[in-house]
Design a protein that fits this description.
The complex is a heterodimer of chains A (about 240) and B (about 400).
Chain A lengths: L3 H19 L5 H4 L16 H31 L7 H11 L4 H12 L3 H25 L3 H9 L4 H34 L9 H9 L3 H32 L1
Helix pairs in contact in A: 1-10, 3-6, 3-8, 4-6, 5-6, 6-8, 7-8, 8-10, 9-10
Chain B lengths: L12 H9 L6 H15 L3 E4 L7 E3 L7 H19 L4 H26 L8 E4 L1 H21 L3 H21 L6 H8 L1 H35 L1 H16 L2 H18 L13 H25 L3 H9 L4 H31 L12 H9 L3 H38 L1
Helix pairs in contact in B: 2-3, 2-5, 3-4, 4-5, 6-15, 7-15, 8-9, 8-11, 8-13, 9-11, 10-11, 11-13, 12-13, 13-15, 14-15
The chains are: A mainly alpha (about 240), B mainly alpha (about 400).
Chain lengths: ~240, ~400
């Protein structure tokens, strides 16, 4: 595949997304045919831009927290001192992924109340798994020859971890973070069923008032964000793995 | 072997040094288990409320149960925790965990009948944080000991069947009938089973549809490289659209089909309800099925294909007798992803009138009735868990078969 065309597409998608978020009214004629005569075609119960920023903030905070916890746990169980936890952690990751996000969200509400908090917790818990799994894979499948060489040059355990293991595993870790972000972007919309301020609000308002234009714009903004972020992180990953 | 009975000589050098200073060397996971168990035992065991939506009063283990049962439970929990703490063999740890779990399950039911006055139909008893924490702690111990025993796939299925059987017996025996979740259930038993069958129809039906369409599409993509990138990219794009939006977007086109295509509405196609949910789940399911079919077929060794061609097999024979059987573990992995994902996503169908367990979850959220949320969430989680264990076992069995075949 040639690299030029995706670059153009990516820039075009970004421009389109920004144009829509900054001046949604210019797109009204496009969405008008989808709604009944008097219904609004552009979301009018709040600013799309600020909802997008809130949506991204929730995802960012949850992913950052998940990354810190998941990477530290994976480092811990891949050291000799935490080796006893390794088989259990693998099983837990496997089981954890069977928990549906809606169930996590709904069960967090009685403890944390409505609003952003249960969404953050659900996204955090759900985001942990792909990152933990990938970090563990990255750290436990390093070439033995490299590890042997590092040990041979007299590096301490900490030096080996920071200078050899983490940098070599970085592309795989980033792939986990990327997967986690994309899942979180979509799952955050469900947070609006428990009153979190995300783009899900637009979609739910559309479902409630039978307004296809709302559903479509909410869905497409999230889709575009996911594509751009996925693409951006893939580019970072590629740069890292060619350098490594 | 990760067996707990390993002595210092055999463990990693780091641990040997540590061990020399300590005469009693506790199991590291056991320490975590014991701390969680003690904390869980001191946290509220059950919550009592005057009716289903008011705030309740939290009761500890000893006040939520008849005296003998409270102490028995406390001793079982501490006993199981000390088994976990010592470097005991995996079987002993498993039995300790199983005993503690069984006691928890019976006792939480007991607290329901103990706390609720028989003549008061409004009082609600639900398990509180201490119960959930202990349940989590000992499930952790059980999972760890099962992992340490490394059971074969068949044995894992036997364990699963036993666990499902025990849960079924608990439900039928009526010991949980005093609990709030069961009261929510008995208030809507008919609806529960209707929604359960809809949930399964959505999750399994869309999986079968995706297999029917996805397997041939995957084979085609593997044969025609020009098609591969386009198809996989399109399916990837669909994954980025959030589920509630995709469900909503499909309402329009399906409504149009129902009105304009003769016979469509007769077979149940409507703008809202199950049809858009089914189509959305089908679309999400395609990527893992197609991508894993392509990956599985790609993984078939060139020499094997060559040999099959050499003994004069036709291309159809090669596909069905050699390539697909060898690709099966990878294809099954895709199906596992789809099934678990669909069982979870089917809850969202409730938002567009598609039914399923999500109905209870969202009704419960709307009424701030936690027990109703549980009535929807617990079966969903259980269903996803059971299907994951079954498919994992199937994948492993097929992998050993494939390896044996390759070796033969």
């Amino acid at each position: 595949m040639s690299k030029g065309i995706p670059h153009v597409l990516r820039a075009g998608l970004l421009a389109l997304l920004l144009a829509f978020l900054l001046t949604p009214q210019t797109f009204e004629p496009l969405l008008k045919p989808l709604v009944q005569a008097n219904a609004p075609a552009i979301y009018n119960q709040g600013s799309l831009l600020s909802l997008t920023i809130q949506h991204l903030t929730i995802v960012l905070v949850a992913t950052l927290a998940a990354t810190i916890v998941a990477v530290s746990l994976a480092i811990l169980v891949s050291r000799p001192i935490g080796a006893e936890f390794l088989p259990l952690s693998r099983s837990l990751v496997n089981i954890g992924q069977t928990f549906p996000p809606v169930a996590v969200l709904a069960l967090a509400v009685p403890v944390l109340g409505f609003g952003e908090k249960p969404t953050l917790v659900a996204l955090f818990l759900y985001g942990l798994l792909p990152i933990f799994e990938n970090t563990l894979t990255g750290l436990t499948t390093l070439p033995p020859a490299v590890m042997e060489a590092a040990r041979g040059t007299g590096m301490t355990g900490l030096q080996r971890l920071l200078k050899i293991e983490v940098p070599l595993a970085m592309p795989v870790i980033l792939a986990g973070i990327r997967l986690s972000v994309v899942i979180s972007l979509a799952t955050a919309t469900i947070g609006s069923t428990v009153a979190a301020k995300t783009l899900g609000e637009v979609i739910i308002a559309g479902l409630q008032t039978n307004n296809l234009a709302f559903v479509l714009q909410g869905g497409l903004i999230v889709g575009a964000l996911a594509m751009l972020i996925y693409d951006g992180l893939s580019a970072v990953e590629q740069r890292l793995s060619t350098r490594a | 072997m990760f067996d707990g009975s390993l002595n210092g000589k055999l463990t990693a050098s780091g641990e040997l040094r540590w061990g020399r200073h300590l005469t009693f060397r506790p199991d590291k996971l056991g320490v975590a288990i014991a701390l969680l168990a003690v904390y869980g035992a001191l946290s509220p065991f059950a919550t009592m409320r005057a009716n289903r939506i008011v705030r309740g009063e939290s009761l500890g283990m000893l006040s939520a149960l008849p005296t003998w049962a409270g102490w028995l439970l406390a001793f079982t929990v501490l006993g199981a925790a000390s088994v976990a703490l010592s470097r005991s063999p995996a079987v002993a740890r498993f039995l300790a965990a199983a005993l503690a779990l069984a006691m928890l399950i019976v006792c939480v039911g007991l607290s329901g009948t103990f706390l609720a006055p028989a003549d008061n139909a409004y009082a609600r008893i639900s398990p509180a944080s201490g119960f959930w924490l202990l349940l989590f702690t000992f499930s952790l111990l059980a999972t760890d000991s099962i992992t340490r025993m490394r059971p074969s796939p068949v044995l894992r299925l036997v364990y699963l069947a036993t666990a499902v059987g025990l849960v079924y017996l608990t439900l039928v025996s009526g010991i949980w009938d005093g609990l709030s979740v069961m009261k929510e259930y008995s208030a809507r038993a008919d609806v529960f089973w209707t929604e359960a069958s809809r949930h399964l129809a959505l999750a399994l039906g869309s999986l079968f549809a995706a297999m029917l369409a996805g397997l041939p599409l995957g084979v085609l993509c593997e044969r025609v490289p020009a098609l591969r990138a386009g198809v996989l990219n399109t399916l990837n794009l669909i994954q980025t659209i959030p589920s509630i939006a995709l469900f909503g977007i499909l309402i329009g086109p399906l409504g149009w089909v129902a009105v304009n295509v003769p016979g469509a509405s007769a077979i149940g196609i409507r703008g809202i309800g199950m049809a858009p949910a089914f189509v959305a789940l089908f679309l999400y399911s395609l990527l893992p099925v197609v991508a894993n079919t392509v990956a599985g077929l790609n993984g078939v060794p060139g020499a094997t294909r060559e040999a099959a061609r050499g003994i004069g097999m036709t291309s159809a024979q090669r596909l069905f007798r050699v390539e697909l059987p060898l690709a099966l573990p990878v294809i099954l992995t895709g199906i596992r992803i789809v099934l678990v994902q669909n069982i979870g996503l089917a809850t969202i169908a409730a938002l567009i009138g598609g039914g399923g367990f999500g109905t209870f979850v969202f009704q419960g959220l709307g009424q701030t009735a936690t027990d109703l949320v549980l009535l929807g969430a617990l079966p969903t989680v259980a269903l996803a868990f059971v299907s994951a264990v079954i498919l994992d076992a199937l994948i492993e069995m097929n992998r050993t078969v494939a390896v044996n075949k390759r070796a033969a």
